[in-house]
Structures are given as C-alpha cells and as structure tokens.
C-alpha cells in the first residue's frame, strides 16, 4: 500500500473509530483475523485447508460488521481514552464486552487452526514409514488424531465469534436513538 496509503488509512480509522476503546476493539478483532489467515497460509493438509478456508471467509465477512458497530458506538459516545464511555443502562459497556469477546474468540479460532495444523502434520509424519520394512511394531509411535477433530473445533469457535458480533449488533440496534 505504501507510506501514503498507510497514512490515509490510519487517518480514516482515527476519524471513524477514534483512538480509544472502539478503535482498540476493532483492531483486536482485525489482528485475530489477520493471524487466522497467516496460519491458514501455512496449512499443507488438503482436508484441513478445505475445511478452514470457508471458515476464513465467514470470519472475514464479520470484519465490516465489527467496524460498523465500532463506528456507530464512536458516533454515539466518542472515545479517545481506554475508558468505556457512559451510556444509559450501561449498554455501551455490554457492547464493548461483546466486541472484546469476539476479538478473544477470534484469537482462539486462530489458535485452534494452529493446533489442527500441528495435528495434521503429525498424521502425515506418522503415516510415513520411518524404518526398514519389518521394523518392530512395538516401537512404532501412536498415530495422532486426524485433522477432522481440529476442524470441528475451528468451526465451533468461528460460530462463537459470529454470535458475539451478532450480540453487539443487537445491543446497538436495541438502543438506537433514531428508533425512539
């Protein structure tokens, strides 16, 4: 993107998200998403990759929704510090909590992908013959789980991320001043 592109993006983020809690919540989510994609690039197992790519696409579709919630929250209660702004009934604290949970769940999804990647590489190593034919089977290492167990964990964690984002959106919609 280059220096000027990065500069413009930073200025746009400051304008739309501020420099406080809403920007941090957005950036935490984005870092988790970036990490998931970085790990996905290193996945070599075709089964795991085929299952992880649709999850990556679903998670990427959540980023504009998270940005929208953060932008709306910043418009309603601008934040330039790490303090969550006051709101009637404390709903902005609840919104921030859901966004934080979404960011944490995103990081856990990336972690689950890492674990599945290691399990898949262990399966590949265990399937390859190590020694000469007729080696002592008593010394053969146990074969690790297939990547499908990790795939289920990735899908579950991805669904949790989506639930937290939806909860934040719901809270913002329920307290929309234009609906009153």
TrEMBL record:
> Where does the source fall among the domains of life?
Bacteria
In this chain, the stretch annotated as Disordered covers 126-155
Per UniProt, the ranges with Basic and acidic residues bias are 136-145
**For bias kind Low complexity, which ranges apply?**
126-135
Task: Write down what this protein is called.
Answer: Dehydrogenase
Q: Please report the organism this UniProt entry assigns to the protein.
A: Kocuria tytonicola
Upper classification of the organism:
Bacteria, Bacillati, Actinomycetota, Actinomycetes, Micrococcales
């Amino acid at each position: 993107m280059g220096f000027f592109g990065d500069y413009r993006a930073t200025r746009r983020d400051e304008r739309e998200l501020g420099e406080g809690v809403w920007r941090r919540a957005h950036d935490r989510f984005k870092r988790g998403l970036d990490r998931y994609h970085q790990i996905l690039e290193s996945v070599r197992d075709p089964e795991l990759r085929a299952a992880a790519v649709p999850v990556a696409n679903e998670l990427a579709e959540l980023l504009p929704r998270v940005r929208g919630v953060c932008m709306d929250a910043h418009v309603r209660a601008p934040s330039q510090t790490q303090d969550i702004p006051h709101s009637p009934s404390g709903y902005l604290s609840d919104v921030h909590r859901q966004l934080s949970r979404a960011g944490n769940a995103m990081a856990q999804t990336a972690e689950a992908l890492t674990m599945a990647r290691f399990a898949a590489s262990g399966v590949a190593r265990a399937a390859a013959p190590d020694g000469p034919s007729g080696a002592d089977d008593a010394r053969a290492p146990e074969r690790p789980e297939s990547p499908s167990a990790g795939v289920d964990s990735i899908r579950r964690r991805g669904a949790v991320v989506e639930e937290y984002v939806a909860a934040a959106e719901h809270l913002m919609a329920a307290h929309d001043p234009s609906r009153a």
